[in-house]
Amino acid sequence: MLDSIIRARDKYLKKKTGLMFPSHTTMLWAPVSDEDERKQSATEYANSMSDWNDFAQTTHTVYGVDMSVLEKDFEREQKEYYLLSSRWSELPGDAVLAEPKVVKYFDMATCTIEDSRGIPAGYPDATFDFDVNGNEFSGPISGFAGWFTADFKSRTDAEGLDAPKIHHSAFLSTGPENG
Amino acid sequence: MYFRSFLGSLSRIHDSVTNVFFSPPMHLTPSFFPSDPRAVNGDAKAKATDFANYFCSYAQLYHQKQMLADHQRMAAYHSAILGNQDVFRDKVVMDIGTGSGILAVWAAQAGARKVYAIEYTDMAKHARKVMEANGVSDIVEVIQGAVEDIELPIEADNLTPESGDAEDGSTRVVDIIISEWMGYFRKSCRLTDPFVS
């Protein structure tokens, strides 16, 4: 989606006077505790693999065809589906276990398709340290949550100094500081 | 006391089955970002993936309603657009991924001369009804298609592209681009229904 916006910006938006709404966005993330969600995913995955075993056995005994050769592929597919995909969730503010870190900041006037692809593995920016103090009230780490903040304000890039100013800037966060 | 987020996948660290996924260094793979298919496989495949992943769910009014019920998001866009009418007055606006069209309605109400509301899914048909019902269909033009593919009716609308860089294939007639792409962040059909909020 972001890459489409960037392509549209570079094709249609006036270079020096054009405005992006939002103008700046920040993606953050932090370790969170949500054991219900994690266990549900693990259970769904386990159930799916159990279904496969029934299927393979039936196919073998009833129809005489050995499907077990596909088990590894099925397992990989299901693992990706249930355990390796991000999903949307609503979390209580106290689920966040550490100070959130900025993953990526986008100046919407200047960010590139390359920026929209994320952070290449191995880059210094791609390492995050979180300080988690688990106790009986918080933790364990069930996963990581990410969210966005968005600004609607005047352009800050050098080329946009003459762009119309936003006199009433606005701010949106989908993060835990909203409580 | 709730906030919206996505739960990441690097992370089922207490689950021995998936321990392996936590062992690499904590980097963000391209799959962390919404644009990843294009990054890896090129545009054609990306479009198919995009479609499979999220356009399908956004074509349902149910999902539009769910998003519109998010008051923080709505309030921020409302004040950003209607609180800055001096910036919108007589301007050409493009709303990318307009959905049922509410941001486009606001842009028109804020005084825009022309609003192009781009929507890939059949939600575009609903958006047209919304424009009519809100008396802004003469200002807002709903265009169904991928923003990469559409043509703006700039001649019919009497718009002159900003000069100087025509050789790069650009048609710079737009003063303001509005989008709510953060809400699409890694959204996928199969997981949307139980978890969208």
Helix share bin of chain B = 25-40%
Number of helices of chain B: 8
Please tell me how large the radius of gyration of chain A is.
Answer: 23 Å
Termini separation of chain A: 28 Å
Strand order in the sheet with the most strands of chain A: 4-2-5-6
The number of helical runs of chain A is 4
Mean pLDDT of chain B: 71
Task: Tell me what portion of residues of chain B adopts beta-strand conformation.
Answer: 5-15%
**Which topology of the domain at 62-184 in chain B does CATH recognise?**
Rossmann fold
The number of distinct structural domains of chain A comes to 2
The name of the CATH architecture of the domain at 62-184 in chain B is 3-Layer(aba) Sandwich
Largest sheet of chain A: 4 strands, antiparallel
Note the run of SSEs of chain B as H and E: EHHHHHEHEHEEH
**pLDDT averaged residue by residue of chain A:** 88
Q: Return the string of H and E elements of chain A.
A: HEEHHEEHEE
Low-confidence stretches of chain B: 8-42, 185-197
Count every beta strand of chain B, where a strand is a DSSP E run of 2 or more residues. 5
Question: Would you mind describing this structure in some detail?
Answer:
The complex is a heterodimer of chains A (179) and B (197). Chain A has 179 residues and is an alpha+beta fold. Chain A folds into 2 domains: 2-34 and 89-178, no CATH class; 37-82. Chain A has helices at residues 2-12, 35-63, 71-82, 113-116; strands spanning 19-21, 24-32, 87-92, 101-107, 143-152, 170-173. In chain A, strands 4-2-5-6 form a 4-stranded antiparallel β-sheet, with no helix packed on it. In chain A, α2 (35-63) runs antiparallel to α3. The model of chain A has no long low-confidence stretch (mean pLDDT 88). With 197 residues, chain B is of the alpha/beta class. Chain B has a domain at 62-184: 3-Layer(aba) Sandwich (Rossmann fold), CATH 3.40.50.150. Helices cover 37% and strands 13% of the residues of chain B. Chain B contains 8 helices and 5 strands. Chain B has helices spanning 36-41, 43-58, 61-68, 71-82, 85-88, 102-109, 123-133, 189-195; strands spanning 2-7, 92-96, 114-119, 140-144, 176-179. In chain B, strands 4-3-2-5 form a 4-stranded parallel β-sheet, covered by helices on one side. In chain B, α4 runs parallel beside α6 (102-109). The two termini of chain B are 14 Å apart. Mean pLDDT of chain B is 71; it is low at 8-42 and 185-197.
